[in-house]
Amino acid sequence: MTGLKALTSASSGSETGSGVLPQSLNMRVLIVDDDSATRKMLAALLAQMGIGCTQAGSGKEALHLLKAQPLDAVISDLRMPGISGMELLTEVRRLHPHIVFLVVTGTDDIQVGIRAMQEGADDYLVKPFQVDAGIVSASLARALHKKRLEREIENYRHHLEEMVAEQTQQLREALSQVERSYDHTVEVLGAAIDLRDSPTAGHSRRVFLYSIEMAKALGGLEQHQLRNIAMGAWLHDIGKLAISDGILLKPGPLTDEERQVMQQHVQIGYDMVRGIPFLADAAEIIFAHHERCDGSGYPRGLKAAEIPVGARIFAVADTFDAMTSDRPYRRALPFKASRDVIDQESGKLYDPQVANVFLNIPGETWETIRRETATAQAFGTATASNIQALSGLAKSGNG
Ligand SMILES: [Fe+2]
After folding, report:
1. Which residues surround ligand 1, an ion (CB under 5 A)?
2. How many CB atoms lie within 10 A of CB 100?
3. 250: which of 70, 132, 239, 345 lies 20 to 30 Å off by Cα?
């Protein structure tokens, strides 16, 4: 039985992976060889297998044909003038990574064929071909099968990447929804504090906005730190929800005993929120919001850098808001007078760096925040605007 007969009888296999070419395979092969006799012989061999061929006498012509028409495989000689077989291989791999590429070597340069495979060739054939046509057929079949697997893997990987991207997007949206839910929850809690402590109406809202303004101007803070400062400032007095009306709303000065009860609001607030994961860092600000730079604050008498930066920022915002707000026992101080007090107490009660940041922010900025907060409250829109502020902060970082 000749090689061709063997091929014909064996080619009933339907899978190229079986090592033989299926009869139904409608493929076109480009034969590249500077020797026309070799080209013709190989073309005749492939024609008997039912494979159509296009011929090129040089690497340059081969590249032109590959560009001009669809081809499934290249069988190229390695030794050619001009563009060599190896150079053609490199170029074909760059331009047509999915095309089958077989190299042809003589019996004396098999090592070159092996090197070609290391460089991306799918297989190598040894001249003369007439020894066994089945070898050519099997080589083509293996290479086609390999390429098909490569394409399937690539398609699978691409599909996998698309799936991962889609699921990542879904996860982001879900997280965003959860964050918005957090914002709503925090918003309601803050509003409850302001309603409870009516003499300082809008206080939580204003110190929240003042603190964000200073935190952004201070710089060097990560997005999550800004968010924690915003949350901590917004909820700083949450512990006051547990203080009795008789003490919280007392118009006159507190007795020592009442003051001690009132001061418990930092511990109560801290205990209320520290177990909530997304408020755990804000809880530290709540706990330290009455600490002062010189150690004169409470409850722990922390000094300077011992105090969380969010609480140091808050201390300035809190004092500024208290001085510029009307109280039952006195009228609000002018903005300039309030700024002078903070300037005088810089380095004592207040972190000098934070105080400096505060003093460098134009007075119009504070006036605008106060005016807009009052307007929002009057029209009952403050809740929505603060949720947007919190959400915007989370998205833009320091924007
Ligand atoms: Fe407080």
Report:
1. 237
2. 26
3. 345
The pairing of strands 52-56 and 73-77 is unpaired
170-398 placed in CATH 1.10.3210.10: yes
Say whether pLDDT at 194 is over 90.
no
What is the rounded average pLDDT of the residues 218-243?
A: 90
Q: What SS3 class is residue 23?
A: coil
Q: What is the residue extent of each domain of the chain?
A: 4-162, 170-398
Residues 6 or more apart whose Cβ sits within 8 Å of residue 293: 303, 304, 307, 312, 315, 347, 348, 349, 350, 351, 352
- Residue type at position 109: D
Write down the residue that tokens 């004396």 correspond to: 108
Query: What is the whole-number distance in angstroms between the Cα of residue 286 and the centre of ligand 1?
Result: 8
The beta strand positions in the chain, using DSSP E, are 28-32, 52-56, 73-77, 100-105, 123-126
* DSSP line for 258-277: HHHHHHTHHHHHHHHHTTSG
pLDDT value, residue 248: 87
Decide: 233 and 216 in contact? Cβ < 8 Å. no
pLDDT tens digits, one per residue of 351-391: 999 999 999 999 899 989 888 877 655 444 444 445 445 54
pTM: 0.57
**What separation in Å is there between the alpha carbon of 377 and the centre of ligand 1?**
21
Q: How far is the CA of 229 from the centre of ligand 1 (A)?
A: 15
**Residue 144 vs residue 261, higher pLDDT:** 261
Distance from the alpha carbon of residue 223 to the mean position of ligand 1, in angstroms: 25
Q: Is the pLDDT of residue 301 over 90?
A: yes
pLDDT tens track for 147-173: 888 889 989 999 999 999 999 999 999
**The two structure tokens encoding residue 392:** 């915007």
Residue 397 Rama label (left phi>0; alpha psi -120 to 50; beta): left
Å from CA of 397 to ligand 1 middle: 27
